[in-house]
Amino acid sequence: MAVEIKVIPKDRKSLRKFVQFGIDLYKGNDCYVPPLVSDDVATLSPEKNPAFDFCEAEYFMAFRDGKPVGRIAAIIHRISNEEHGKKEMRFGFVDFIDDEEVSRALFDAAAGWGKSKGMESMIGPLGFSDMDYEGMLVEGFDELSTMATIYNYPYYPRHMERMGFEKKADWVEFSMKVPDAIPDKHVRIAEIVKQKYGLKVVKYNDRKKAVAEIGRPLFELINESYKELFEFTQLTNRQIDHYVDIYIRLLRLDLLTVIKDADDNLVGVGVALPSLSRALQKSRGKMLPFGWWHLMRAMYFNVTDTVDLLLVAVKPEYQSKGVNALLFTDLIPYFQKYKFKYAESNPELELNQKVQAQWQYFETRQHKRRRAYGKRI
Question: How far is 144 from 151, CA to CA, in rounded Å?
């Protein structure tokens, strides 16, 4: 049967079907970690996602004999295009069966929409912001994914190359063994940094206070410290308010380490979370009827041996000056306390030597690689 491409409406019911296809495609795959359906629906919804203040998007699904066989989101990020002087569209939320007719039909539909809007090239997988999923997996297909990353089958990169896509950037990920003791070098550097720059470690045990004091400053720090990274576009005030409401309220405060200077200005942040990968697998992307229990158990009852390092951000003027040692000198004792054996770095640009240098005193294994692909349309 021929492949039929349909534009997916942006109402909640249609978006749930769009998201659910990506989950159903990986049924039985032990490495795939599903998103929470409600979260992805909110991201794709113009009513929920403030990125639609400056983005527009169209969603396509491929059908054969009435059955869904693929999906793709086509996104135009106007601020990014203006800042970089490009006419570029993004693609994301892409999944398809191992059939070249299906993948080509999906990308042709996305590219056709982009061309109708004046775009000249396409790149992805990317989302509406850097808080969304980025990068197609090209190495590490037999490794458990994380809540913050894309998993895809090994045939995906082959399809991309056959359609003429080329590498634009790679991210690498590391698995690290949690050390039995804080590395001596970290301890020495941390003490020097505290004394030389007047820095201090701040912990919170009151969530409202944490939100009030570092909610917006944390995302402003992300804007400042990530601004030179690949395809990064600064978050707007509305986006910051949105992410503060979503993320800060979900953090484990004991695994949140904040570095401030003598004037209480935010200098650095380290955010870690017990791995929710197995819990999300058990939930199948749904909070009800028992998904919430699996997630809460993983979050607060320390039933996993892995901790995800979701975020490390340091003000540019303090980068490469040892602030990272100060962050990990605080976090490692908590990792030991909760009996975490491994830490996941999550994606880092392969050319970002500053970030990768922070792992030099740990036993690491580079176990995943993901790629942004691009081509002219």
Answer: 9
